[in-house]
Amino acid sequence: MSDAPSRRDARSRLELQAIRALLEAQRRRIQTYVELQWGSASVPDSVPDVSQAPPPPAGLDVLDALPTPALLVAPLLGEDGEIRDFLYVGGSAPARAYGASRLPEAALPRWSGPVALFERFPALAASALPAMLARAHHDRTPQGPETVEWLVEAPSGPVRLHDEVRVAPCGAHLLITWQSGQRTRMAADAQRLMRTCWAEWNLGDQHVEPSRGFRDVLGLPESAPVPTLSELADTVTSGSLPRLYQILYDVILRKRTTECELCLTGAGERVFRMVAEPVRIAPGSLVWALRAVLIDVTAERRRRESAECAAREAQRQLERVEAVTEVADVLRDVVLPHFQGELASFGLDAAAVYRPDAREARVGGDWYKARKLPDGHPLIALGDARGHGLEAATLMAKLRYALAGLAYTEQPVERLTQWLNEVACADGNESTATAIIARYHPEHALLRWTCAGHPRPVLVRNGVATQLPDPVGGPGLTLGVLPSTTYVAATATLEVGDIVLMYSDGLTEQRDSDPDQDTRRFLTAAERCFAEAPPVGGHEALQDYAERVVARLDGPHRTDDATLLALRRITTG
What is the pLDDT of residues 455-506, one digit of tens each? Predict the structure, then answer.
């Protein structure tokens, strides 16, 4: 259980020597004190006349003088020499007081003289006592202590008695003594439950008086000797040696009550809080013994360390989230535009609502774009990159800026979508995304758009919401799935007041939901919000409408970021 001396460093070996020197110095002080106080005591010159001493008392007189409950019994042998019963000869005054306090008045007949033990106490015959009596009689050796439990019937119900019993030969008789087992057991159980024990270490002769649960609490075998203070120093870790020296110094020399924590080596390195006080020979004199309580605080220490570790990890995660959030905020402001009327010259108004995934870093894979191109036509796009958090945001930024560059080629949206797919495919196997890529032709009020695995735009006309028809051949593949994929554009002619809603699936998608049902939910929300407050007027009305649609669809079920881009034709342009 102790550190091997070879494993102690030089400092620890010096600290261990200091502890032993402190204990040895106190032992010498006690020895000197004893020699000065009692070393010169005189021995009488004459021997007293023992013939003048009174005769020894009779057995029952001695029994009555005992301060503890005791019964005197004699074995009753059969013709074969085997024990048949035991004669209850008499009991001490504390035994009679115990019977009067613990046994119901009607449970026992009045005492009239010696009687068979198990005739007077029948329930004892089924307890551990008969075997203890038999062993003490045959072996002539003391027995116990053992717990003896028995029941006595009473009008109010059975009375349970359980005591710590000892049996010792007493001439031809046997002496039964006991103490209340309840108090003894409760003390032992309290030590076990609270992982607490105590002991008193005599500093003069190294004798130790431990509590009953001392070995169990310290994890020692029942047969192991109780460690002296010097041996206790051998069992603590090197880091605990300075604390043990300090507590011994404070108690022995400063004569103070003090405490510290000690870590004992062995399985798991158990931690104990030691609270110690001095025991003096006389008030003001030197310390004769050290009395201490040891409390096993290993579980408490481990819980505290786990809590501190969790708190540190939580702080690191918080700092990481704050850093990621700061980056995300900057990234979102860069890649998610704020419309300030730049589409008005094309007869369009635009509003956007973005809701990040609350579980991630306040930005994800959703993106949108609406800007004027050199050919005089506005480019309008909305996409959703695979994944969550900064990983998705990184892919989103790549695709968004790639589209911005590709759009300057003035190629039709079909070619732009095809090129964007090649960019995604070249980025890696995990770089997939969905998108709507559109270009508006104000001279014809015509919206040409392609779909790459994305929910189709919704047209709200006169308060009625419908999905725009699929391009010929159906929607195209998701970006990044298959190189050399071609895409087909669809067209929609817009009337003044028409609203086109482009959205990401995070706004409608629920766990284990049906995509068609999700689409119906979106159409219903768009129509009801229009009916409640038609978005007539300026940009603020369109923004309010978009906010209300998102609010109606959003909720705790959402597991992805959500985006809604609303376009409204405002003039015949």
Answer: 999 999 999 999 999 999 889 999 999 999 999 999 999 999 999 999 998 8
What DSSP line would sit under 20-54, residue for residue? HHHHHHHHHHHHHHHHHHHTTPPPPSS---GGGSP
Q: How far is CA 63 from CA 129, 137, 163, 179, 276, in A?
A: 20, 19, 19, 16, 40
Residue 326's contacts (CB-CB under 8 Å, 6 or more residues apart) are none
**Helices and strands in the chain: count of H runs, count of E runs:** 14, 21
Instruction: Give the angle 136-139-144 at the CA atoms, nearest 5°.
Output: 40
Q: What are the tokens at 204?
A: 């003069």
The Cα–Cα gap between 394 and 398 comes to 6
Name which of 117, 116, 141 is nearest 129 in CA terms.
117
Do β-strands 196-202 and 378-385 pair in parallel, antiparallel, or remain unpaired?
unpaired
Report yes or no: 479 and 421 within 8 Å, Cβ to Cβ: yes
Least confident of 70-79, 180-189, 286-295, 556-565: 180-189
Crossing angle of the two packed helices 389-407 and 413-427, in degrees rounded to 10: 140
Is residue 236 a contact partner of residue 264, using CB atoms and an 8 Å limit?
Answer: yes
Alpha-carbon distance 367 to 374, whole Å?
22
pLDDT band at residue 564 under the 50/70/90 scheme = very high
* Other beta carbons within 10 Å of 196: 19
- Do the Cβ atoms of 199 and 231 come closer than 8 Å? no
**Strand 366-372's sheet: what is its strand order?**
366-372, 378-385, 433-441, 446-452, 490-493
Q: How far is CA 258 from CA 150, 191, 255, 298, in A?
A: 45, 21, 9, 20
Q: Using an 8 Å Cβ cutoff, are 451 and 476 in contact? A: yes
Length of the chain (residues): 573
**Are 463 and 534 in contact, with CB atoms under 8 Å apart?**
yes
Using an 8 Å Cβ cutoff, are 367 and 399 in contact? yes
Kind and range of the H or E run holding 399: helix 389-407
